[in-house]
Design goal:
2 domains, 14 helices, Neuraminidase, four-stranded antiparallel β-sheet
Length: 509
């Protein structure tokens, strides 16, 4: 280690490897050589994985690595479902495990995962750990678990049944679950308070009734509620596209009843402020937008006079749009997504008919390639990558709004039918969050909608989610993640006025 340090002092170069990183960090920390300490921390940060994050977190506690320590701690929270099955999980002390499972930031799709993790940790060394069961179980948000899970995952376990205090606590929660999870109490009781999501879905703009809207709502999937974030100073737009990239939400193109836009507006999520960036080469509403390899792609649409087959690409680092090859088909009111480094675009309207045709663009070859057509013509369709396939949902076939859904497998170049939505809709928002496919709002053939539902590929079923506050079609959705101020976009866990929640409870009864 001393040889490496001396060579660094003379040459300014350093080789950090898995074999030397820990010893090198210890030595550099002892001699207060912060450049080497930082290089080692950077290396360890790149190596973070579910298998080693607890070990790295423990290691950093003894050295000048506060930033890495914080990142390792957050990595455990963000990847808890994968961490619990690793060997290092058993190295946690009861105080450390308690701290993790008590956190609102713990990222778990189901609270039963937390309960199973606690029982797994205890049964690994029962004689030493059984005495901690009540403490740890009290940190689990048991009221968020279903009655079946409480019965099969918790009460059926001999570990719980043989502990009178624990079994009584679980029984009390089972008996009072409906009361604890009512809107008036859900944020008050620690057993029922939803955890914070590590990603949120934004629904932006659209057509509400007879007018475009500037409304922005954020979906808190853990609480199953929408939070209104509307900035009244921002101009309304509909039939636009949105994209999340490097901490910013980009709103691209669109229409406000009077003008079709080529403008692009960017929302800084850290400051909640908007700014204008470079405009597109073409005015586009009914536009298709997606992100690939750090660039935003805009395809097709309508400029107010003609429908388009042109496409262009935006690079944020140069703030410039560049024309790329045009699509094979003219497409407005289509939808697109990114899968396996390709951009897939499906359906739309060419000025004469609704389309079932599809194609993909490869940046590597800079070419569009036609693929198998969908089973249905779909304009105003929703397209998204999900479960290693391209899903095409709903839309308008030229005579009726659809609720049918089909999935494209790029390995076989074939489409297959999957379960249909609960409601018909076109021109809706679509996104994947928490491994569910969500559809938001839209037009059902009679009126604009605030209805939301989601699809689970594991069960091939659609379920209802919380409605938006604003009924609208021609909106656009995007999922944002990795924000330091994520709590600003979610339902407040502690400070939300109880009166407001109680009013919600009264309205629902």
């Amino acid at each position: 280690m001393m040889q490496i340090i001396i060579e660094f002092a003379y040459t300014g170069s350093l080789s950090v490897t898995e074999d030397n990183v820990q010893e090198l960090l210890v030595a550099a920390n002892q001699f207060n050589i912060m450049n080497i300490v930082q290089a080692c921390c950077d290396f360890l940060e790149e190596q973070l994985s579910p298998k080693n994050c607890i070990g790295i977190w423990h290691f950093t506690k003894f050295y000048s690595c506060s930033e890495l320590q914080e990142k390792a701690y957050k990595f455990v929270l963000d990847h808890f479902e994968e961490v619990v099955s690793t060997e290092e999980f058993q190295d946690l002390t009861v105080e450390e495990l308690s701290d993790f499972i008590e956190s609102d930031d713990l990222n778990v799709r189901k609270e039963s995962t937390v309960c199973e993790a606690v029982l797994h940790w205890i049964t690994n060394s029962p004689q030493e750990r059984e005495g901690h069961l009540l403490l740890l179980l009290s940190k689990v948000r048991l009221a968020l678990m279903s009655q079946d899970d409480l019965g099969t995952t918790v009460m059926s376990r001999e570990l719980v049944k043989s502990n009178a205090e624990c079994s009584q606590m679980v029984m009390d929660i089972m008996d009072n679950k409906d009361h604890l999870t009512s809107p008036a109490l859900v944020m008050r009781d620690s057993a029922a308070r939803p955890r914070l999501p590590n990603a949120i879905m934004l629904a932006i703009g659209g057509w509400s009734g007879a007018d475009p809207t500037n409304g922005i709502e954020a979906y808190d999937i853990r609480a199953d509620l929408w939070v209104n974030l509307t900035n009244d100073e921002e101009r309304p737009r509909a039939y636009h596209g949105t994209a999340f990239l490097d901490g910013y939400v980009y709103c691209v193109g669109g229409f406000d009843r009077q003008e079709s836009f080529n403008s692009v507006r960017r929302l800084d999520l850290s400051t909640h402020t908007w700014q204008e960036v470079a405009p597109m080469h073409f005015r586009r509403y009914y536009v298709s937008i997606t992100v690939l390899n750090g660039c935003i792609y805009a395809m097709g649409g309508y400029d107010g006079h003609v429908r388009l087959r042109t496409a262009e690409r935006y690079r944020p680092d140069t703030n410039q749009w560049t024309i790329i090859p045009s699509m094979h088909d003219i497409r407005s009111d289509a939808s697109c997504t990114t899968l396996n480094d390709k951009i897939y675009i499906c359906g739309g309207f060419n000025g004469n008919e609704c389309l079932e045709t599809c194609e993909y663009y490869s940046p590597e070859t800079d070419q569009w390639t036609v693929i198998a057509p969908m089973n249905s013509q779909r304009s105003g369709v929703g397209v998204v990558a999900y479960a290693d396939c391209v899903f095409a949902v709903g839309g308008f076939d030229g005579s009726a709004r659809l609720r049918s859904t089909e999935a494209y497998d790029p390995r076989t170049n074939t489409w297959r039918e999957v379960s249909s939505m609960l409601t018909t809709r076109s021109n809706f928002g679509i996104e994947v969050i928490d491994n569910y496919l969500f559809v938001v709002g839209g037009f059902n053939g009679y009126t604009t909608s605030y209805n939301v539902e989601y699809y689970d590929a594991a069960t091939d079923e659609w379920c209802e989610a919380c409605d938006m506050e604003i009924f609208r079609s021609a909106l656009s959705c995007c999922v944002v993640h990795g924000l330091p101020n994520m709590a600003e976009f979610t339902l407040c866990r502690d400070a939300r006025p109880f009166l407001e929640l109680e009013l919600m409870a009264e309205e629902s009864t």
